[in-house]
What we know:
The chain contains six helices and 14 strands. It is an alpha/beta fold. Strand 13 and strand 14 (223-227) form a beta hairpin. The two termini are 24 Å apart.
Amino acid sequence: LTQDQMKLAAATKALEFIPDDAVIGVGTGSTVNLFIEQLATIKHRVQGAVSSSEATTARLKALGIPVLDLAVVDDLPVYVDGADEVNHYLHMIKGGGGALTREKIVAAVAKEFICIADETKYVTVLGEFPLPVEVVPMARSYVARQMERLSKPGIRVHPELRMASGDKVFQTDNGNYILDVHGLNIAEPVSLETYINQIAGVVTNGLFAQRRADVLILGTQHGVEVKR
Ligand code: DER
């Protein structure tokens, strides 16, 4: 099976976790885009969606799924999103698509976080994928220095400012910058998430560990596995 076929299998399986007539939270990324297409096939029994990015909003609207403002939603049974890495405790690294702040907000409101992923994302230790950290632009150098201090003998931690096309700095939907932090080996995801959050200038970091996934739907070479 190709990676896309495994993503599609996970995205399709997620429909079984969508309650009738619910408002559901929808994440960002290529796996979620496959899920949105599947969601459109049952949109008659979906009240609406709360989106985690402008990109997702555009796709939901294009498929005729009503997009609702999170501020007026007080009951969100499920949030469906992908991950860049997910460990065996269902802690995740997210933010590869740059939507980590709104993803974390919608995930916080949702009762159940359903992560959909292909097997290449399933790891024992988080950190191979560079950890995205969303920062207020003026704080980018200060936060970068704080990240470099996480280096240990033989393990150099180095943050890179995420660029868009050419020499333009990538900007999130919130107008902030992203540092992609390479070289981390994350044995304690919850404490590292908390540590990074308290650095002045950090808006959000891509560790989803305090609030991890409740269900992982994993597309593998041998079919779809559901892990809790
Ligand atoms: O940016 C994100 O958090 C996305 O969910 C990302 O982690 C997964 O993107 P993919 O489904 O395209 O791999």
